[in-house]
């Protein structure tokens, strides 16, 4: 085979690789008009090289942020350095639909790209070459992992049955608020409440009915909360609400509203209507408390006074 034939074969191989490689290759002149458009770009855009030849990039692909891309490319031309884009910063340059079955959850192709200068014989930059990499598999895996970690984090601080905070996470918030109140002159009140005669519900209707009652009371607590309040399931049929920046009088109004909403509630279970009530105890923070546990004990004492005095009522703790 002659040297000329070898060179022709090499050019043929290069053109074949250029068209079939699973990477997008685009060449623009310095006016951002398309000069080269390989098979990857044709397959994903639906536009042939002939259709895009000499077309202004931003007319064909309006989703591209022209100002951003020009700022990205200016140093490539001026300094003759490469530039890179990654999907974490910008999901794509070319908005192609995602057709991969494995990553079908992604609507569009996530892309990384490399932009490098092409020079003439005098060393002047005359064109820009873009390499577009499909990284949808990696991006989707990363996004799903982060989403899963977020859900696991949420689950770790949420009570499964009520979807309120679990005791551990709620108590962490209480400790933070207690420490804040020890430093600053603010008022916050702690509410503890308990479902009256809950054992009777379980014994009469079963634990499924008891779980349903617990969920409905949690819904009532949630509906009465303000944005700054922090509610949790303290244990069993007992709930705790931290009423931030709330005086005892204001908290009593909240507690009475919650008590009435539960008293008026009817819970349907297996064709029967269940009625329950709440006993509630309130304790306002005071600086004589040594730690958050004393605050819980004060609210708990008020709760048990409510139970001892006939249930279905609100009691405010009075320091001895």
UniProtKB/TrEMBL annotation:
It holds the Pfam family GGDEF. It is an enzyme of class 2 (transferase). SUPFAM superfamilies: Nucleotide cyclase, PYP-like sensor domain (PAS domain). It catalyses: 2 GTP = 3',3'-c-di-GMP + 2 diphosphate. SMART domains: GGDEF, PAS. Residues 186-319 form the GGDEF domain. Its EC number is 2.7.7.65. This is diguanylate cyclase.
């Amino acid at each position: 085979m002659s040297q000329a034939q070898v060179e022709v074969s090499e050019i043929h191989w290069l053109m074949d690789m250029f068209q079939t490689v699973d990477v997008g290759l685009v060449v623009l002149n310095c006016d951002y008009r398309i000069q080269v458009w390989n098979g990857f770009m044709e397959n994903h855009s639906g536009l042939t090289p002939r259709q895009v030849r000499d077309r202004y990039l931003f007319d064909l692909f309006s989703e591209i942020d022209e100002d951003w891309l020009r700022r990205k490319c200016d140093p490539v031309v001026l300094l003759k350095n490469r530039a890179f884009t990654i999907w974490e910063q910008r999901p794509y340059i070319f908005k192609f639909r995602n057709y991969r079955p494995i990553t079908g959850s992604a609507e569009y192709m996530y892309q990384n790209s490399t932009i490098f200068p092409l020079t003439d014989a005098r060393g002047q930059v005359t064109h820009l070459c873009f390499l577009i990499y499909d990284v949808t598999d990696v991006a989707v895996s990363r996004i799903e992992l982060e989403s899963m970690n977020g859900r696991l984090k949420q689950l770790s601080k949420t009570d499964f049955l009520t979807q309120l905070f679990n005791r551990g996470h709620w108590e962490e918030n209480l400790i933070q608020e207690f420490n804040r109140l020890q430093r600053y002159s603010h008022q916050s009140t702690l509410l503890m409440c308990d479902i009256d005669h809950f054992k009777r519900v379980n014994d009469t209707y079963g634990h499924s009915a008891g779980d349903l009652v617990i969920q409905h009371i949690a819904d009532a607590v949630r509906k009465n909360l303000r944005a700054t309040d922090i509610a949790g399931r303290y244990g069993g049929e007992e709930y705790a609400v931290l009423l931030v920046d709330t005086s005892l009088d204001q908290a009593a109004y909240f507690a009475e509203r919650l008590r009435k909403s539960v008293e008026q509630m009817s819970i349907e279970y297996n064709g029967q209507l269940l009625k329950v009530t709440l006993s509630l105890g309130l304790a306002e923070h005071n600086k004589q408390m040594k730690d958050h546990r004393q605050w819980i004990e004060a609210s708990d004492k008020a709760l048990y006074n409510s139970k001892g005095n006939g249930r279905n009522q609100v009691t405010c703790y009075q320091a001895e």
